Amino acid sequence: MSEKKPNGWRRLDNAAKIFPSTSEKTDTRVFRFSCELTEPVDPETLQKAADKAIKDFPHFLSIMKKGWFWYYLENCDLPLIVHEENRAPCSQLYFPGRKNLLIDISYYRCRINLEIYHVLSDGTGAVQFLKTLVCCYLTMLHGDEWEKRPIIDYDASRTERSADSFQKYYSKVKGEKRKRVRRAYNIKGEKRETEDLRMIEGITSVKEAIAAAHRFDTTLTVYLTAVFIEAIHEEMTLRKQKYPLVLMVPVNLRNYFSSETATNFFGMIAVKYDFKTQPDDFSSIIKTVSETFKTELTKERLSVRMNELAALEHNPFVRIAPLGFKNICLKAARHIKDYGETAVVSNIGRIKMPEQLLPYIRMFDVFVSTLKIQLQLCSFEDKLALCFSSAFTSSDIERRFFRKLAEHGLNIEIRCSDIDELPEPPEEEALPEESGDIPEEKLDEISEES
Amino acid sequence: MLYCEKCKVYVSGQKTVCPLCQNELSGAFSPEEEIFPKLKKPKYSGHFLMRLITFIAIAAAVIVTSVDIMLPGNVWWSLFADAGIFCAWLCIMVGIAKRHNVIKKITFELLIVTLLSVLWDIYTGWHGWSLDYVLPCCCVAAIIATAVLSLIFKPQAREALFHLVLNGLYGIIPLFFLFTDRLRIIYPSMICAAICILSLAAVILFDGKRIKEELSRRLHV
Ligand SMILES: [Zn+2]
Fold first, then answer.
1. Where are the domain boundaries for CATH 3.30.559.10 in chain A?
2. Which residue of chain A is at minimal alpha-carbon distance from B5?
3. Contact call for residues A101 and A59 (beta carbons, < 8 A)
4. What pLDDT digit, counting tens, does each position of B80-129 carry?
5. From the CB of residue A346, how many other CB atoms can be counted at a distance below 10 Å?
6. What residues pair up with A202 in beta bridges, in sequence order?
């Protein structure tokens, strides 16, 4: 009930507290989930669906403000307006001092894009919202054809959805000394000049990928992580191999601690591989990765890591430091922490949709802003999307990754956001399409006015 | 769909070379497969206006100073001109930086203008005009402006309320100078303090709950 207060406010959850201070040029801390349908998106229906879906996630309608000690979120009644995609993926959503939503829904051809500022939610929460949105949208269009209404399997009250689960599971850890950040291999390379990231995604079959993983006697996630490690390794110079390669893997804590929150609730584990001491053949990499997953992915280990993170927020000195000072410190801390990380692999997992909707949906994919290179995995039915977001100009790691998969017998379809270096496409191709588009738009305008 | 022989991958969308290895592609493309729209690069760069004004300020200061050096005479009048340019620049910068929040802007400008005028007064041989007139007049102006804005922008009434309290507290400062006998003319300061105390009392008595709420969210630790 307290949700409905027009001017209610909430603290940021524990993981979100560091995001505003550490948002940067390319790392805007925005991530994008897209759903590709089998037919072009109808904007008006999408707007109606968005209005309906947001009612189930009222805490997404918030603006972020600066307090004297922390940022906080304030409920607001700004309208959520669906628009045609007009900005680069994962562009900035939070502008200091401006009153605007931290969530953005756009469409382009058959795709519905949902962009969310990480302060509001993590991947799981965003997927829940996108699923609800797509379900509303398709029901509005095709609802009459089905006998039964599709139901999204997400049973949580509104207070549960906006609850901070970090607080719930926090317990003070006995003064275990924080380990010093060990320098990890940092990918060197020219960063992109423009502020938008380059996105390259490969789409392949889940069955084929699992078959390839089984040939190496392992699971899909371990297999793909190992391929990623090998791809990075091949780009390392011999001199740089003295540093270990460290992949950070976000873990959905809802799988380990019961929670239905749609705000942030994830932890990070590190997968280390040291090419100086460990052999560089593929099966050894797989073995190490799979062992790391086994030891790190237990409730005990995760709760230790979670409490370490939360300890910062519970430290009285940190709490009473003015926000401006906190921002400087958190930014510095982030750069130090970055030295210990090479790249990120994030597995969203399988996205399930009600049966009636399956014929209308082609696939889902996901992109996250980054300062380095990041791989996101997500699957829907038999479509596995391997999405790279990268702040570098070169696409060598992506090339090695996908070539390796192709060598292992996978059929891959590559799609990418535009690369600036490429020459412009021939004019003749673009012209007829555009001239066909304009009258249609004009027609729409006329019909809207009348 | 296009195909890269070297990478052994299919490439969809309208591409001239393989996105992975930049080699030629075989096959025919279909633009319908493009998943990202071709966007024009945004030309607007966020802080262009700030840079422009900064450049103009620097240019003005350089010109004034060099003219002063070239002209005969032993009074460094350009120092005052430079300081004046700097003050104007500072006020404009704050104005631009806080352009999305007019109410906040007033509080910031109040602070800057009063502090700068005290500095001016000190370095021009302390005539007391900054404390006698500028400080109380600015406080009163800020309070009135904030109160009016809170009536115009209803959704921001709570924000305005908070700044009203801040301005009100700031406006009591002249009272301190009054009692420590630093003022030559007491009327503006007395009137300012009276208005501030009255407005503080009104806000706290009639809107105390909202003030408390606003404070709790801004000051939560
Ligand atoms: Zn290629």
1. 9-151
2. A403
3. no
4. 889 899 989 998 888 888 887 888 889 999 999 999 999 989 888 888 88
5. 22
6. A386, A414
What is the CA(B22)–ligand 1 centre distance, in A? 6
Which helix (H) or strand (E) element contains residue A44? helix A43-56
Read off the amino acid at residue A19: F
Chain B residues in contact with A86 (beta carbon < 8 A): 37, 39
Q: Min CA distance, B85 vs chain A (Å)?
A: 27
Give domain A198-416's CATH superfamily: Nonribosomal peptide synthetase, condensation domain (3.30.559.30)
Q: Do residues A118 and A16 touch, judged by C-beta distance below 8 A?
A: yes
State the count of interchain CB pairs (< 8 A) between A and B: 110
Q: Give this prediction's pTM.
A: 0.84
Our CA-based measurement puts residue B171 at a distance from the nearest CA of chain A, in whole angstroms, of 21
Residues of chain A with CATH 3.30.559.30: 198-416
Of B8, B104, B219, the CB nearest to A67: B219
Topology adopted by domain A9-151: Chloramphenicol Acetyltransferase (3.30.559)
Out of B19, B41, B213, closest to residue A414 by CB: B19
CA of B4 to the centre of ligand 1 (A): 5
Burial (CB count <10 Å: 0-12, 13-18, 19+), residue B184: exposed
The amino acid present at A44, given as its one-letter code, is E
Instruction: Pick the closest to residue B163 from B148, B144, B146 (CA basis).
Output: B146
The pLDDT value given to residue A25: 67
Calculate the dihedral angle through the C-alpha atoms of A51, A54, A55, A56, rounding to the nearest 10 degrees: 140
- Contact list in B for residue A383 (CB cut-off 8 A) is none
- Alpha-carbon torsion B173, B176, B177, B178, what sign? positive
Ligand 1 mean position, distance from CA B6 (Å): 5
